Amino acid sequence: MFTPSTSKGLVRKIGAIKRFMASIKLPKISELPVLGHPLENAKRAAAYRAVDENLDVYKHRVIGIGSGSTVVYVAQRIGQYLKDDEYRDYVSKFTCVATGYQSKQLIIENGLSYGIIEQYPYVDIAFDGADEIDPNLNLIKGGGACLFQEKLVSTSTKLFIVVADTSKKSYTKLGSRWTQGVPVEVVPVAFARVQHDLLKLLNARTVTLRQGGKSKMGPVVTDNMNFILDACFGDIDDPGTLHQKIKSLVGVVETGLFVDNAYKCYLGDSDGEVHTIVKESV
């Protein structure tokens, strides 16, 4: 039976929970519990530093959240700001724009407010991963098939921050480490034509229609209901020119070459260190 004494006990418990929630402080990176793998510790440290050093809690309101294993920690860190009494009122006003289904889930799971790019076409800051990063902060992206939306969000902000691990860093040219080829998002009905043009007009070494693998029969379908072609060109001397040539082909929606787009990159190393690459000018 529910009695006044049980009511008082419930009130005390609720009060204790509220006091506990209000007392939660943003965890320091140096005090975080160790994860199972050294590289995961480094990826988390890179993502947390990227957020701490670039997110302006007091001014930023629309935040782009990408996808990938390192970006998981970006959403986690922003969610920790939401739990801290010092920042809660500001972070609760954030709207987080996703680049795909995975990032939408990250936003929701961390208690953040989800918005769509149609409502918020201008983003204050965006965080995303990359498949390859060259010394000039040019990127190859799209290995996870979130391609067009990633570029839409990243080009809608001046502060595009990349988080990844050091295995994604190329010390020479794009294409030297990410050998699967440049992802190219294409309208399904045009994929054969684009495949032919990439091979015959742009001299791609190979062009493969990406398949769903064990989990899906047939081609991978993007969130925008398009196909992905992976076009291998070897080492890419001029990513900007190649992007423009591919983009000019009829049927191409977007390329995975992100040129002159990223502002800063945080790379987690297996030894626990975090390395940064900064664009000379915004």
TrEMBL record:
> Signal sequence: where?
none
Q: Which EC number(s) does UniProt give?
A: 5.3.1.6
UniProt keyword Mitochondrion present? no
| UniProt catalytic activity | aldehydo-D-ribose 5-phosphate = D-ribulose 5-phosphate
Q: What class of enzyme is it?
A: isomerase
* Pathway(s) the chain acts in: Carbohydrate degradation; pentose phosphate pathway; D-ribose 5-phosphate from D-ribulose 5-phosphate (non-oxidative stage): step 1/1
User: One of this protein's Pfam families, by short name?
Assistant: Rib_5-P_isom_A
Q: Which UniProt keywords apply?
A: Isomerase
GO-annotated cellular components: cytoplasm
Q: What is this protein called?
A: Ribose-5-phosphate isomerase
Q: Which organism is it from?
A: Zygosaccharomyces bailii (strain CLIB 213 / ATCC 58445 / CBS 680 / BCRC 21525 / NBRC 1098 / NCYC 1416 / NRRL Y-2227)
Ranked from the top, the taxonomy reads: Eukaryota, Fungi, Dikarya, Ascomycota, Saccharomycotina
